[in-house]
Structures are given as structure tokens and as C-alpha cells.
Amino acid sequence: xxxxxxxxxxxxxxxxxxxxxxxxxxxxxxxxxxxxxxxxxxxxxxxxxxxxxxxxxxxxxxxxxxxxxxxxxxxxxxxxxxxxxxxxxxxxxxxxxxxxxxxxxxxxxxxxxxxxxxxxxxxxxxxxxxxxxxxxxxxxxxxxxxxxxxxxxxxxxxxxxxxx
Length: 164
Known about the structure:
6-stranded antiparallel β-sheet; 2 helices; mainly beta
């Protein structure tokens, strides 16, 4: 009896073989019972800094009840959504923060280094000024890079570094 050779080709109709999975959006998802937030809206965005301060992005409400549901070490960014009554779901992901001693001004910084030329934008506007602290952080990770940073509170900034 002659057997047909094994077909190693793609089998697109089979379950689980139809693309790449999405990157995980949250490092942790938790529920919180927060009756003190009744009447305070349906969702909230906040950041918890290294010193456990809560920076609320879209309201002035005290969100400590939602923060206590998150078992991540700070710093992290969280999004909470009311699911009914006093039940909230909180998604949180870790972030990196830095304290910039030399304030670059503005609330958003984009910095790129391609190995020969540096480009800096502060609040979307090109500038010749540099941000040495961000440049040092990025250069320690990659030879060429893009840094984005956004002010969280005072001199504390959230940042990310990507290779160019």
C-alpha cells in the first residue's frame, strides 16, 4: 500500500492557525467594589507613581478604592470601567517613569536619534533644545532610538524607548 506524503503546508481553515495573537493590553485585570464612586461616571483613567501617589487623568474624584484593587507594584497606568452598581473592572499595565531635573517644558516630548542626527519635538513643535536625561536613558538601551515622554505630574514623566 502506497501512502501519500505528509502535507506540511498551511491549513488555514483549522482553529488557531489564522494569524498572530494580539499583544496583551493589560498586565493585570481586577474587580473592585467601590460604592463611594456611585454617581462618579462610568470610567476613569489614572496613573500610580512610584511613591504611590495617584494621578487622575479625567476627573478629580479620589480613586484610591480602585487603586487598592490593583496588585501591581507602581508605577502603572490603569483604566477602570463601571460594570454595574458599585462593581468596577480595572485593567493596569506597568509603565516606566523618570524624574527630569531639567524641565524641557511642555507636556509631551518626542526625541529621535538615527546615529547622525537628533530630532526633538516638544508638544509637537520642533526645537533645537535637547533633553539630555532622556537621551542618556535611550542611548543606554539602543544605538539608534525614538523616545516618547509625557508629563504625569510636576517633574515626573512617563516614557518609552524604541529602537529606530
